[in-house]
Write a structure and sequence with these properties.
With 231 residues, the chain is α+β, with helices and mostly antiparallel strands. The protein has a single domain, classed as Glutaredoxin, CATH 3.40.30.10. Helices cover 48% and strands 11% of the residues. The protein contains nine helices and four strands. A four-stranded mixed beta sheet has the order 2-1-3-4. Helix 2 links the parallel strand 1 and strand 2. It starts with a helix and ends in a 12-residue tail after the last helix.
């Protein structure tokens, strides 16, 4: 698949990171993921797959939805130290559809060698815009503006965001996550498409002990489970 080629051709062994820009626990995990990517650069590439947490949702948030999300944000902030703009909860009629933000990350991933940011870094931009700055990243114009701030050409990004091929590629990501049996985000594994993957974490986990555990795994020859169909 094109995303696998783009991100793992130089590093057959890689992290497989299944996440969603509008998943609060993924936002909390972002600093951990960035440290892992930096520490293992040159040894483990990073393949980012969009999970589609609430892709295609059409129902406006209710009071009970806001209460549930506020509780989740409180727990994520306590665990990770990531900032949250509580003004989000003053919104009325917000439709929590994560598909547009996922699609924007796919556009960045498929941009090619001249992309100004990696998919991982661009996902972080979108997440921060939503959680820390209360920007409506369900809107294509907002996503294109964030892309422009990151160095993408805004009009070209907006056009690709609306392209049917990018919508199809995003849906393929969702299918990959489903076929792998991923039911929660973030999910991080390490390995290769040919040989399979070893689970690093299914859900948020702090950095403590992770680097050492992955170093030990590499030192043992990177043992993995059988390749996951569709991964």
């Amino acid at each position: 698949m094109s995303d696998a080629v783009a991100e793992t051709s130089v590093h057959p062994l890689h992290f497989l990171y299944v996440a969603d820009p509008l998943c609060s626990w993924c936002y909390g995990f972002q600093p951990v993921m960035e440290r892992l990517a930096a520490h293992f650069a040159g040894r483990l590439g990073v393949r980012v797959v969009m999970g589609g947490l609430r892709a295609g949702n059409t129902k406006p948030m209710r009071a009970e939805d806001k209460a549930y999300i506020k509780g989740a944000w409180t727990r994520v902030a306590a665990a990770s130290g990531q900032p949250f703009d509580q003004a989000f909860f003053d919104r009325d009629g917000f439709i929590y559809d994560t598909e547009p933000a996922c699609r924007a990350v796919v556009v960045a991933r498929e941009w090619g060698a001249d992309a100004p940011l990696s998919p991982l870094a661009f996902k972080a931009r979108i997440s921060a815009a939503f959680y820390a700055h209360n920007r409506d990243v369900t809107e294509g114009r907002v996503l294109a503006a964030i892309a422009a701030e990151a160095g993408f050409e805004q009009a070209a990004f907006a056009a690709r965001l609306d392209d049917a091929a990018m919508k199809s590629a995003t849906f393929r990501d969702f299918l990959i996550a489903q076929e792998m049996g991923v039911s929660g985000f973030p999910m991080l594994a390490a390995g290769s498409e040919a040989g399979g993957y070893a689970l690093v974490t299914n859900g948020y986990r702090p950095i403590d002990g992770l680097i050492e555990a992955i170093e030990s795994w590499l030192a043992k020859g990177a043992p993995v489970t059988p390749a996951t169909e569709g991964a």
